[in-house]
Hints:
Layout: H1 2-23, H2 26-30, H3 35-42, E1 46-50, E2 53-56, H4 58-78, H5 87-112, H6 134-145, H7 148-152, H8 159-192, H9 198-223, H10 241-273, H11 275-285, H12 291-317, H13 337-340, H14 354-361, H15 363-390, H16 392-397, H17 400-425, H18 430-454, H19 458-469, H20 479-492
Antiparallel strand pairs: 1-2
Amino acid sequence: MASTSQMMLMLRKAAPRLTRSLFMCHHACKSPPTSQQSQRLFGTSVTRLSNDGLIPGPQVAAQIANISRSLQSSKKKASFFPELSDKSAAYWLLGSAASVFGIVVFGGLTRLTESGLSITEWRPVTGSLPPRNDQDWTAEFTKYRSSPEFKLLNPHMTLDEFKSIYYMEWGHRIWGRVVGISFLLPAAYFIVRRKVSAPMAAKIVGIAGLIGFQGFLGWWMVKSGLKDDLFAPGSHPRVSQYRLTAHLGTAFLCYTAMLWNGLSILREHKLLADPQAAMKLFERLKRPELRFFRASVGALAGLVFCTAMSGGLVAGLDAGLIYNEFPYMGSGLTPPKSELFSDFYSHTPDKSDIWWRNALENPSLVQLDHRILATTTFTSVMALWAYTKFSPTLGTMLPAACKRGMHGVVGFVGLQVALGITTLLYLVPLPLASAHQAGSLALLSSVIILGGRTWVPRRATKLVSQSLAKPVPTPTRPRMWNQALDQRLGKHISPVS
């Protein structure tokens, strides 16, 4: 023990000497630099401070200050979000979009099977598990028996039949919670770890808020079908078509935002892989000859969205169960005017609301509006395709990727029209109606993809311009050159004695 203490004491005494002998350049100390050598090395004169070393002159101090400020600014910039989002964030956004696509289709099945009003309470945490025993099932069934839907439509429903519709609504709600959790947790990770750019982080936060608002809209919609005072006395117990359409529209917006931002990240990586080709593509897309096509794609996206929302009104009013023929509606292309604009739907003595209430609450006019919008969408897509096909200017200037995207839109709109007509003719069967709803979201997706290939993204243009403006990196010196330079500097730089 004593020997160990003596060795530690000897090491402490020898440490200063060992440090000086190991880390001091003795060769440099033997040859102090002259004033001319110092000027060649530093670009200015130096001032003697003391025997311990030198201090730089005014010019060298200014240069050192500039270098220090640039280093600090670069560190400050590095502490913020990166300019380019990681590809993993794009794959996560696309996966979330696929999950939202699935829950939209499943929500349509819940509506078609009349299962949405089977759960009469909103319990975000405790309602995550279904009833576990007969006592719990009896309690849930008792709550449902007090609802207007049971009293007016299902007074003879058994407990086993109730379980089937209960599981449909429970599955839809659980899927909604999974969508929220699978988005919020990775969103926090990508933002905290700075895997996404600052604009993308703001968009992700916005999507997260939209998901939370969507959950609130879901319960607000269900609540409208559980109270007698929220629908006309004696009418079919159903959720409000306004709230149903709002719920559907928010889901479409969530899906579109996830799809668009995920594709944007992948597009930025692809463009930055070859900045010169990307800049040529942007210049080509910005040509005045393509201005009308770019605007038409944007208008087409809005038209598809409006048509899908009119379909939400059709579903909310069960308007697809009347006039099950096409293209006629009764004895003509349209029902009689007295039926389309009936005084029955007006709520004011002067009948000032007869136009908009019939357009939103009259099943006959709602179905006619949906037919008109769907026909307009189909005609617009085919007209835009013909414009790209037969216009000599557009045929030569439009990129091949845009042409392929246009062909995809044509295919989806044809499929959607066929599904819509057959759903109407066969009295809204479950498989066709569900496929028709999925087709609307697929058609919107194809238009969004076409827009991503046609529109010129501002942020991608900025990133490509910055990439082209970066100086070409100089090749690194060989290791032998570095050693020779170090030896030369070691001969001329040393503390002034």
